[in-house]
Amino acid sequence: MASLDINLRYPVSAPIRPIAVEYLWGLQPSELARVGDRKDVDAFFHLYFTYYTQQCDLIGRHANGKYSTVETHKDIADIAKLLRQPLSRKEVRDHLSTFLRDGDEEQHDNSINLVGRLLLMTKLGNIPHECLGGKHVIWDNGSLTEFVHNYFSCPLVVGNVRTKFEKSFNAVNLQRIAGIEIWWTDNLADHLRMSNDDKAVAIFHHVSFLKYQRNNPIFPPGFIEETLRTLALLFPKYDPLSKKWYQSRILKSNSPLDAQLMQIGTLNARDRQARNFEYWHERLVILKEQYHEARPSTLSQWWYDRRNGVQWYTFWVAICVLALTILFGFIQCIEGGLQVYKSFHP
Length: 346
Fold this sequence. Notes:
The chain is mainly α and 346 residues long. The protein is built from 14 helices and three strands.
């Protein structure tokens, strides 16, 4: 592991990124191959280690390392190995003093939170100087695996099991019909969470990360696959409008977005049943309710909102009649003006 014995002041270079990933999540070569071709793998490493560097800057390097006891990338790998074991947070913290520099309990806790964030892409722990919004989750008891399983596991809401997500229920229509903004997030705990008075929804776009986690037991059984299906629902692979829309968002975004988002697939009618979503069921149903309750408020929304065909045709026929009435009235005014002019200037 000598190649990872590098101070946090220096980012993880491209040649040793596969080693760092292997030490974080264990040996999963088949999953790395499933991410895609070499170009896709490089894109995955770029996206993930952008996030990795941001978290190291926030916790490990902030104020010259004042807030944590992590000093090297090897320290991160060693803590990750502990977190993958069935150890409680206290037991992990007790082990840290055997290989990290001296520090108080809060510094060790921040070190644990840093590595937990890197393992899960989830905002673990409350960092006082963190400015970005979003939901942070607190791990106090049990092992990290037990905590993750309990946190993401939600009982199915029986009253909504017959709900179906129609084909029009996708990210493009959420924005252009319902006026719901798409906010990209690096925090898995924020995925599908609505905010801004229910006018925005957070989307975890890191598909490459999710694909790599398919066999990771730290997540609940089926959780990763279901998360990928929520993205396939909102970003159908074979919808040209969605693909064009997402490409425009990639170009406009201030931070890199995962190009794999539009490569997951498309759900058929059976797969779009709400009962097929266990972990994200409640948030999907809330999002669907907001989508269906939204009423057009601009001409563009009226144009795209064809959920009620009769209402759509009625509205636009009325608009056409109004436009023609105004046009003919304007023409009549001009003709009247010309007649008055000719009467005074024969």
